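Escalated from tier 1: S-adenosylmethionine holo job.
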Amino acid sequence: MSAHPDTAFDEAAYLRRYADVRAAVHKGVFSSGRDHFLRCGRAEGRQAWPLDEPVDNGDEDFDEGTYLWLHADVRRAVEEKIWPSGHAHFLKVGKAEGRSIGVQTRETSHAMRDYTRLVRELIATHPDDLALAMAKAIGSQSAEEYYLGGEHQYAMLQRAGLADGQAVYDLACGSGRTAAALARHGWQGSYRGADLIRPLVDYASATKPGFEFFVHRDYSIRAADATLDMVYAWSLFTHLQLEEILLYAADIRRALKPGGVLAFSVLTLDSPAHVDLLLSRALAFKKGERPPHLDTFLARTSVASIFETVLGFKLVEWIEADDTSVIAHGGFGQAVAIYRK
Ligand SMILES: C[S@@+](CC[C@H](N)C(=O)[O-])C[C@H]1O[C@@H](n2cnc3c(N)ncnc32)[C@H](O)[C@@H]1O
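Tier 2 regenerated the structure:
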């Protein structure tokens, strides 16, 4: 159970800092510094914690936004200036209470472990070309491929019903490839992009002004119930276990408005090219080689089981990986599912 958030209150520090409160307590106007803080100090914006309280964090697994999303009481306490930050709360109280920082940490999540390592290695390999490192991190081998991939994603979003004014959530936004395409095409609306890996999110934020990107380390969508017109996930479920896909899918359903759209891409066992890829992976495994991250191959029927039978999404369209009716010259490269809540 959570402690009352004002456990951050430091009586001695508060009285030391505010001479007028000290005097008022001395005169008996307030019974204590805490009494002053609760009755008026908080509303006046006074600080209840010592000024040397740590507010930043050097812990790569801790993410402030994820922690505040998971713990609404801490979020409120930080808004009310009772705690300087979620991290300060976690260090002093939350850790001992066993509060979650999001289950996707390097210890527990293959994606956190693998993508953290991959991104670090790419930045080190391309010290003078961050854009190339950021393109390679999400699977494009050049700036041109990154651009073209974004164009294809934009075309798919249009096919899925993207329109100006919508609230759109880019799950696994990576370094911002799709957001860059949205900006190029002048799309206007409310965009939020989430990813596990901080350097990717930082790069996206720095290079795509006007778009909101954040780190999110929970299998959830950081949006209130029934508030999103569209959620899309390009090349995410291609890298997750089925359990993880199911968790994300269930929360996407919660966050979508009735009639809202979900679009995502997958590697499928229905595509000869993907089966070839799987076979080459199997040979590599036999030699003891490990791919940089997990690749998941799904059949059309397993996608239907999860999204339609289990979660009740309604299929709008299934586009095979090599279908050239939406994307010319070879198709999208992955199969695309478009669903409606
Ligand atoms: C192939 S990249 C695609 C990025 C982006 N959607 C695009 O198409 O440019 C896969 C992305 O998924 C992110 N990712 C992997 N596992 C994740 C998870 N469990 N939750 C959120 N993002 C994840 C990675 O950090 C990476 O940015």
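Confidence is low (pLDDT under 50) at residues 1-6, 54-58.
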